[in-house]
Structure formats: structure tokens, C-alpha cells
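Action item from last meeting closed. Structure (273 res):
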């Protein structure tokens, strides 16, 4: 089939790459110089951190900054570099995870449009407006339900919720419905079945994802938490339970990885848009 759209695929390229290609075609640049220009456009060092400023074009979302262990200078530089690389007609927000109070304060002083969630340890920086909080009910046709077994799992759930808000996905948070009181999840089945995907956050024995998955026909992303007594082994027992789930629509992510569970569920939800 012939593509009748007059817009070239090259229009999606970084302007610096477009210019480099034009210079190469006109003989100004050698092949080696062209390669160097392209590499410089997608890998720019800032404060000791090399930001992947081309990721939004490749994947639809910019690089997420993992803040733990980074100096304040390198974190601020990375957020600023990624933010400046975002296109006006594309994604407009940078997300950083595992952000501590000192790092959050520094980012808040450097940038205008910031949302800091101390429980989730996330910070979102928008190019032009205040970042929106996560969207609550109703879900609509492409929403994600985030389910927590207990209130002690809330910080991990909020990381997932902030991630989904960063992705522009509507969410509903169903709290404190662990398997010790099974009637609680049964009362929320209508809400769960309206979701495009579900994130279930649970510690202790980690059985809740299987219970939820047995009632729905969508992917369930199981997030084990480190909540529990000694034999929980810092979340390892919950992770193994989730990996060994008999429910075929359960996929487990790493311990306390609210970001990963939220991101995967968000991709599923957005695929239907």
C-alpha cells in the first residue's frame, strides 16, 4: 500500500539530526562526522549523568530518572536536560522515582511546575503547567485499577498511581482488601471488571493478585512489597507466591516496584486508545 500522507517520516526526527543529515547530503559532513552528530544529539552529559533525550521519540515516554544515589546536582541537571528535550506536541512531563526530601526540595527550587509525593517518593516536573494528580473514579474504557492488600502497602501503590498519572492514564484506587477478609474484594468486582488492566500491591503471603485475577479477564500486574514479618524475607516470599500464581493472567514485577507495575499497566491501558 502506498502511503499518501505527505508528511515525511523524517519529520519525527530531532531537528539536530535532520540538520546533520542535510549537511551530510550536501557534502558538508563526512560519514564519521554524521555519526558523531547523531550520537551527540541523543546522549548529552549533564552533571555526570547521560540523559537519554531521544527516548520519548522512540517509546512514547521520556526517560524516567531513578534518583536514589544521585547527587542533587546530577539529579537536577538530568531532569532539566530531559525536560528541555521534550517536544511541544509530545509528552511534557519528567518523572523521577525514589526521590528523598533534600532532592525534592532542590528540584522544587529549580523548576516551576512540580508535584512531589513524599509517600511515593516521586516527583513530576511539567514543562508548562502544574502536574495533575492521579485521576480517580470513574475509570472509563481505558483505566487502570490499583489494588492494595493493606494500608501498609500504600506507599508502593502511590508510586504506581503517580506513574499512571504521568502517563495520562485514569486510575481508581481500591484500598485495604486483603485476602483475610475475602468479602471486601467481592464487593468491588464491578469496579475491577471495568478496568483495562489491574495493579495489585501486596505483602505478607502475597496471595491477593491470584484472587483478583480469578475474577477478571484483563492483565493483572502483581507488585510484591517488603511488608511482613521475618519469614517474609523482605518481600521474597510474596514475590515467589506471585511468580507461582495459578492464575494465567498474573505477571509479577520486582519487590516494591510500584513504578514498574504502574508503567506496564499503563502501556496496556493506552494500547486501547
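Sequence:
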Amino acid at each position: 500500500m502506498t502511503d499518501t500522507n505527505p508528511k515525511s517520516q523524517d519529520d519525527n526526527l530531532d531537528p539536530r539530526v535532520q540538520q546533520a543529515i542535510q549537511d551530510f547530503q550536501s557534502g558538508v559532513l563526512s560519514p564519521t562526522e554524521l555519526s558523531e552528530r547523531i550520537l551527540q544529539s541523543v546522549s548529552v552529559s549533564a552533571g555526570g549523568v547521560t540523559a537519554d533525550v531521544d527516548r520519548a521519540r522512540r517509546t512514547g515516554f521520556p526517560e524516567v530518572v531513578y534518583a536514589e544515589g544521585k547527587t542533587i546536582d546530577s539529579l537536577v541537571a538530568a531532569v532539566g536536560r530531559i525536560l528541555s528535550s521534550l517536544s511541544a506536541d509530545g509528552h511534557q512531563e519528567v518523572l523521577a522515582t525514589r526521590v528523598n526530601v533534600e532532592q525534592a526540595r532542590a528540584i522544587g527550587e529549580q523548576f516551576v511546575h512540580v508535584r512531589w509525593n513524599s509517600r511515593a517518593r516521586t516527583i513530576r516536573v511539567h514543562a508548562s503547567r502544574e502536574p495533575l494528580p492521579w485521576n480517580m473514579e470513574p475509570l472509563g474504557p481505558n483505566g487502570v485499577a490499583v489494588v492494595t492488600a493493606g494500608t501498609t502497602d500504600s506507599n508502593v501503590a502511590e508510586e504506581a498511581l503517580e506513574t499512571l498519572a504521568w502517563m495520562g492514564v485514569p486510575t481508581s484506587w481500591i484500598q485495604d482488601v486483603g485476602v483475610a477478609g475475602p468479602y471486601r474484594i467481592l464487593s468491588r468486582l464491578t469496579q475491577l471488571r471495568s478496568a483495562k488492566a489491574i495493579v495489585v500491591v501486596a505483602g505478607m503471603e502475597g496471595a491477593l493478585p491470584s484472587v483478583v485475577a480469578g475474577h477478571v479477564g484483563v492483565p493483572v500486574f502483581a507488585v510484591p512489597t517488603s511488608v511482613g514479618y521475618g519469614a517474609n524475607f523482605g518481600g521474597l516470599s510474596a514475590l515467589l507466591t506471585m511468580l507461582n500464581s495459578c492464575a494465567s493472567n498474573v505477571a509479577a514485577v520486582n519487590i516494591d516496584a510500584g513504578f514498574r507495575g504502574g508503567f506496564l499497566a499503563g502501556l496496556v491501558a493506552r494500547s486501547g486508545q
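Note appended to the action item: The longest helix spans residues 72-85.
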